[in-house]
Amino acid sequence: MAQRPISVVRIAAPLRTFAQRFAFVLLLGAAITIMIVGRTDPAVFDRTRMTVTDFFAPLLSAIAQPVATGAQIVSDVEAMFDLRAENERLRLENQRLLAWQSAARVMQAENTQLRKLLAYDPQDAATFTTARIVGDRGGAFLRSLLISEGTRAGIAKGQAAVTGEGLLGRVASVGERSARILQITDLNSRIPVVVEETRERAVLAGDNSADPKLVFFSANAFLKEGQRVVTSGHGDVFPPGIPVGIIQSVGENGVRVRPFATSDRLEFVRLVDYGKTGILKQEITAQ
Amino acid sequence: MTILQRLDFLSRLCLPVGLTLVLVLLSVTPLHAPGFTAISPMLVLASLHYWAIYRPQVMPIYLVFVIGLFEDILTGGPSGLNALIYLVSYGLVAGQRRFLLARSFGIVWWGFMILAAAVEGFRWIVISALGGLVVDPMPGLFSYFASVAIYPVLTLLFAATHRLLPQPNEGVA
Fold first, then answer.
1. Which of B87, B10, B12 has its CA nearest to residue B48?
2. Runs of H (alpha helix) within chain A
3. Phi, psi at A237, each rounded to 5°
4. pTM for the complete prediction?
5. For labelling, which of A133, A165, B142, B152 has a CA lying 20 to 30 Å from the CA of A264?
6. Do B37 and A137 touch (CB under 8 A)?
7. pLDDT digits (tens, 9 = 90+) for A129-146
8. How far apart (Å, rounded) are the C-alpha atoms in residues A273 and B59?
């Protein structure tokens, strides 16, 4: 009788090791299969992914809020130290903006008159939705954001995500109460843009660096640092004229654009619905 | 054992997996610190590394797989990538557990440094290959150093959790 436990262990232990090895290989195979299928046909997992993010969005939102409050306190304390300099900067900026305001008023009046003359019917009636960013650090090599609003709030695939400064990205996939935004800096992002000054068309291609690259512009294009880049409206994805960024460098490394909008300190993002679907009917996600 | 004792026992057994799932959620939470969006320490990898060495029984491999998939979904990265990385890492570390168990914290930390370097390097290669261009490796490097630096702090957390776990010979398991 004293021998029995030992003999059971003798048989059971190798069996268990075998079962564990088998399960390990099986799971490894499953992971590789998921990678290959997810790569060849991203739509297969899109629904599952959004169901899971839908389920966890409220929880992530609950975690994100106190963290945001903490970060706000830190930045408030930081701001207190350079109140004087900040005040001076704002005073100067205010002066400049007042000049711009009067210029804008004149132009707006002129624009209204011209529109009346032409009987112009503006078609870009936009609606806005604001959503909290609940996930932003997808690892070192991913540039997408998770937000806590979805189809229920009227968010749809292809909508532009903007901040006060400019274009941040676009909605890549959407669930019932969560959605994923592909930032313009992500290596999968391609946005048709135009250089505001010269009306030179190009495509803004992200490559995961902070400054995405301008590609597909004509060889004799006159591009120089400091020129503003805005969306062109080609491909019928975004309306023309959303500010994107400023040309940062022109050189061997290509033409780099510094985006106006960064997600660093961003807590909320605005989704703009212009009623355009354009070329984004098919799946283009970060996979 | 009474039902309450059993519940208490089971809930304590689930602590490591629960903690790792919380770390998945934390690793995507926005920090709102400028320049930090690209730096994401590998919290989950640290957790799997710890449990693979000190208590593999409480972290079955199918849950390692599920945790990896969960992170893939929340981060929006290529499906299955983290599941694959975590499975292989867990298998490798669990294979060295007899060696690592008897060693000091320094050696374990050093082991984590090698593992994390391999993981971040592999991630960089896969993302570059999938994207069809050479991605800037610097964010990966920063994440790597952040992971290595935070590992001792996380170990304290894991060790505290470890003390709450039932002993291997205690109860029904």
1. B87
2. 4-40, 43-81, 83-118
3. -100, -60
4. 0.83
5. B152
6. yes
7. 899 888 887 677 888 899
8. 45
